[in-house]
Amino acid sequence: MSRVRACVKRFLVSEDGPTAVEYAVMLALIIVVCLAAVSAVGSNANGKFNKVRTYLS
Question: What is the pLDDT averaged over residues 15-38?
Fold first, then answer.
């Protein structure tokens, strides 16, 4: 049991934990930006395809 406590204490004291959290937050922000960009491009492409469809009809 003391070995588990030592591992937990070492994890809490080490700098790797906060660094991993920072990387996770940055990754989440990058994913949100990418999703917003893909959504915007998709909306614009959908508008263009609708214009072409109405022109061809």
Answer: 87
